[in-house]
Amino acid sequence: MAAIRAIREVLVKGLVFGEGQARIRGADKEIEELAESIRRHGMLEPIVVCPSARDPQKLEVLMGQRRVQAHRILGRRTILAAIIDRPVDLTTARVLSLTENLLRVDLDTRDIIDGCTTLYRKYGSARMVAEETGLPYNTVRKHVKYDRLTTELQEMVDSGEVVLDVALKVQDVADTDVPLEPDEVKLLAREMSEMTAAQRRTVIKAKQESPETPVESLLKEHASPKKKVKQIIVTLSPDEHQALQAYAKQRKVTQDKAAHILISDALELMLEEKLSA
């Protein structure tokens, strides 16, 4: 088993990022803020590195990609590192990197998909991936289903146009006996992104019961809410409000709409778990 052999300052220029780094897309986000924090307060804990299997003269970063980038911005020559005594395999590197980044900042959805899929192919079990990374089992199970999406839906997820949950529900509709045209898939995904959980269930059920009905007609008939809505007031902590703001910005919707989506999705998940129990 690999073990830490030393904790010491290492040269920043001698560090490389390996294939195991989960945080690939959007890795420059918030780096400026992190650099300023390190400049003022120092670094709270060392990064974790191991000898690079590709270049014996380099050290591969296993945990701490953002901190290394912040040090480069600051022009620092060295960084404190815990050095593992030998190279680690790609799967171990993925586990370390994915777990560390999940504890710090929100990963790009596709990065979580890639990390979970790599580990799922290694272990063959979503539950094993959940145990290794600390991710909730349902989260892992959802992200490893990305591969079953059509090309159109994968592109929409990658671009952030729709979230993975919605794309998977659209795929369920597309898997009926009457296949959907690519334009219908895109239309349905966009429209379902703006629906409540109850509306989505209604549309999915209607399409499964009547697969020959055109998507546009289906949406006109079932997308509009049939019942009066209830307004509630929710009190959030500062951290929760900040998370809501970030989600609303990501989805390009108002905070009210973002809260509506999150609550509807959570209630839908609770209902699904109750029905499957």
From TrEMBL:
GO terms for molecular function: DNA binding. It comes from Actinomadura darangshiensis. This is ParB/RepB/Spo0J family partition protein. Residues 8-102 form the ParB-like N-terminal domain. It holds the Pfam family ParB_N. GO terms for cellular component: chromosome. GO terms for biological process: chromosome segregation. Belongs to the ParB family.
